[in-house]
Amino acid sequence: MDERIVRYFDGELSIDERISLLREAEVNPALRKDLLAAQNMRGIFSLKVNAVEKVEVERQYRQFVRTCRRAKLYRIAGRAAGYAAAIALLVFATWKITLTTVPLPLGETIAVQQELYAPAGQRARITLPDGSTVWLNAGSTLRYPSVFGGERRIDLTGEAFFDVARDPGKPFIVSTASLEIMALGTQFNVYSYPDAEYASASLVDGSISVCAEGKPDVGTVLQPGQELICANGRMQLEALDKDRLLWKEGIYPFNGQTLEKIIEKLKLYYDVDIVVTNPKILRYQYTGKFRQRDGAMEILRIIQKIHHFKIYKNDESNRITLS
User: Can you tell me the distance from the alpha carbon of 204 to that of 200, in angstroms, rounded to the nearest whole number?
Assistant: First the structure.
C-alpha cells in the first residue's frame, strides 16, 4: 500500500500533497482502488461518535493499516468494498473525510473536516450542513466543517457557485487566496484559481460584501448583476455577463476572447499543458459555447476550423502543442 494513503487519512499530507495524490489516483486504477478501499474502511470506523469509542475507532484503523502493510491483504479489502467503492467513485471526485483529534466530552459530535475536489474536466455539486448548495467547477477544491459554529466559514481554491441558505445569526464566509466574501442568504459565484490572472466575485441575487484577503475593514458591497474583479492588487466593479455562469450547466462560453485567454481557461479547467510555437495565433478571437465533456482537444479542434493551425498532443506528458 502506498504510504501516502495512510498519511492522507491521518492528516499528515500538505494540501498540495493531498491534491497531487488525488489527481494521480484519477489516472492510476491501482492507486484509486487502494484509496477508495481505505476511505470505505475509515468511513465505517468513523460511524462511532463518542470520545470513548473514538479511541477504539483509532485502534481499529491502526490495526487495519498494520495488517495491510504486513500481510499485503489490501486486495481483499478492495474486493470486499467493491460495490461501495463503485458508488463512492461517483461522489468521490476526490472527496475525503478525516476525523479531528480534538478530545470531546461524551455525547458530543466529533468535528469532521471535509474536502471536495472536482477533477479536471468535471464539476461537482454538494449540499452543505446548513442546507446551502455549492456547485464546484473543474480543478477546484472546497474545504468545510461537518458542523458550523458561530459562523459558516469555508475555504475555496478554484471556482464555485453558491446558493446560500439564509441564517441571519450566522454569516456565510468564503475565503480564497485573494478574496473574502460574506453573505447571509444569496446566490453568487467566486473565481479564484491559483494560476489565474485575476480573482472575481459575481452576484446573482441578494447582497454580498467582498474584501481583499487580510483586509476585512476595506470591503465593497455588491448589488445583483455586478462583478468585482481583483487583479494586480486593484479592484474594479463591472456588469456581470451571466453567460460566464453557464459552467454550472457544463457549458464553457467564450465571447470575443483571444485564443490566448481561451488557452488560459483550458489549462485551468482540464489540467493540461498547452504550448504555442507561433505567437501570432494567440491574437485570433473566437465566440462560441463548448460543452465541458468535449475536453480541451475537441474544443481546440473546433476552434481550428475557424483559424487554421496545427494541433499535436503528447499523451505521455499531457501536453498539447499548437503551431
Answer: 13
Q: What is the DSSP letter of 109?
A: P
| R_g (Cα) of the chain, nearest Å | 22
Cell 491559483 belongs to which residue? 194
Bridge partner residues of 95 (DSSP): 116
Q: How far apart are CA 49 and CA 314, in angstroms?
A: 49
CB atoms within 10 A of CB 14: 8
What are 208's three cell numbers? 454580498
Tell whether pTM > 0.85.
Answer: no
pLDDT digits (tens, 9 = 90+) for 110-140: 446 788 888 888 899 999 989 999 999 999 9
Largest distance between two CA atoms of the chain: 68
Residue with cell 464546484: 136
Asked whether the beta carbons of 288 and 280 are under 8 A apart, the reply is no
**Does position 72 have pLDDT exceeding 50, yes or no?**
no
CB neighbours of 65 closer than 8 A, spacing ≥ 6? 1, 6
Q: Strand, helix or coil at 168?
A: coil
Distance CA 61, CA 55 (A): 10
pLDDT of 279 strictly over 90: no
* Residue at grid coordinates 474584501: 211
Q: Give yes or no for a contact between 167 and 152, defined as CB atoms under 8 angstroms apart.
A: yes
Report the distance separating Cα 18 and Cα 4, nearest Å.
9
Q: How far apart are CA 19 and CA 8, in angstroms?
A: 10
pLDDT tens for 195-233 read: 889 999 999 999 999 988 766 666 789 999 999 999 887
The DSSP letter of residue 277 is S
CB 251 within 8 A of CB 295: no
The rounded distance, in Å, linking the Cα atoms of 24 and 17 is 10
